[in-house]
TrEMBL record:
Signal sequence annotation: none
UniProt entry keywords in alphabetical sequence: Cell membrane, Membrane, Transmembrane, Transmembrane helix
Localization annotation: Cell membrane; Membrane
Pfam families per record: SURF1
Organism field: Roseovarius halotolerans
A GO cellular component entry from the record: plasma membrane
Membrane topology classification: Multi-pass membrane protein
Highest taxon in the source lineage: Bacteria
Subcellular location, principal: membrane
Bilayer-crossing regions: 6-24, 197-216
Record family assignment: Belongs to the SURF1 family.
InterPro entries: Surf1/Shy1, Surf1/Surf4
Protein name: SURF1-like protein
C-alpha cells in the first residue's frame, strides 16, 4: 500500500491546486461581470454638460451632450467591424465657442466618401473617452496622408487644433449618413475568466484521470509480478 501513497498524494495535490485555480477564475469572473455592469450603467446614464476640466479616471465614459459648429476637416482612423469589414472612424473638431474638442462621429466604409460636415450649430450626445487603441503592433499614424491607426488624442488635437478631449457620438441632431455612430461599449474590455476556469477544471479532470490510471496500472503490474 505504501508504494501507492506518494503518487496518490501527488495526484490529489495536483487536482486540488487546479480546482483552486478554476475556482479563483470563477470568482474573478463574478468580479469582472460586476465591473462591466457598472460601466454599462455609466455609459447609458442621462447625459450632462461637459465638465470644465474632465478627469480621465473620474469622468471616463461620462455621458455628455455638447453643441457647437463642426470643423471642415476630418481625420480617418482605420478600423474593422465584424460582418462589415474595413472602414474608418471619422474624427472631427467641434467648436463650442469657449473651447474646441474632438468628436468621434462614427464609422464609414473605406470605399465611401466622408460627407461634408453639417452647417450651423449641431448637438451631439455621446460619452467622454480616452481610448487605448495602440499596442506594440500598431503602425505609426501617417498625419500627412491622413491615415490614422490609433486615436492618439494629443496628436489628433494638434492636427485639428482642439483640446485633447474626445466625445464618442451616440446620437446627433443631424443626419450624418453614410457615417453611422459607433458608440462606446464594453465589447473591447477583455473578460476571459470563464475560458480560463474551464481550462483549469478540465486540467483537474485530466490530472485526476491520469492519477487513477497510473494507480490502476501500478496495481495491475504489481499483481502480475506476484503471480
Amino acid at each position: 500500500m505504501a508504494r501507492y501513497l506518494v503518487p496518490l498524494i501527488f495526484g490529489l495535490a495536483g487536482v486540488a491546486i487546479l480546482i483552486g485555480l478554476g475556482t479563483w477564475q470563477m470568482q474573478r469572473l463574478a468580479w469582472k461581470e460586476g465591473v462591466l455592469a457598472d460601466i454599462e450603467a455609466r455609459i447609458g446614464a442621462d447625459p450632462v454638460a461637459l465638465p470644465p476640466q474632465p478627469d480621465p479616471e473620474a469622468d471616463r465614459y461620462l455621458p455628455v451632450r455638447v453643441s457647437g459648429q463642426m470643423g471642415d476637416d476630418a481625420l480617418r482612423v482605420l478600423v474593422s467591424q465584424k460582418q462589415v469589414g474595413a472602414g474608418y472612424r471619422v474624427i472631427s473638431a467641434l467648436d463650442m465657442g469657449a473651447r474646441r474638442i474632438l468628436v468621434d462621429r462614427g464609422f464609414v466604409k473605406t470605399a465611401v466618401d466622408i460627407p461634408a460636415p453639417p452647417e450651423g450649430e449641431v448637438t451631439i450626445t455621446g460619452n467622454l473617452h480616452w481610448p487605448d487603441d495602440r499596442n506594440s503592433a500598431t503602425p505609426a499614424n501617417d498625419v500627412a496622408e491622413n491615415m490614422w491607426f490609433a486615436r492618439d488624442l494629443d496628436q489628433m488635437a494638434t492636427a485639428l487644433d482642439t483640446d485633447p478631449l474626445l466625445v464618442v457620438a451616440r446620437e446627433t441632431s443631424f443626419s450624418d449618413g453614410p457615417v453611422t455612430p459607433l458608440p462606446v461599449d464594453t465589447g473591447a474590455i477583455p473578460n476571459d475568466h470563464l475560458e480560463y476556469a474551464i481550462t483549469w477544471f478540465s486540467l483537474a479532470a485530466i490530472w485526476a484521470a491520469m492519477t487513477g490510471y497510473f494507480l490502476w496500472r501500478s496495481r495491475k503490474t504489481a499483481k502480475g509480478d506476484t503471480a
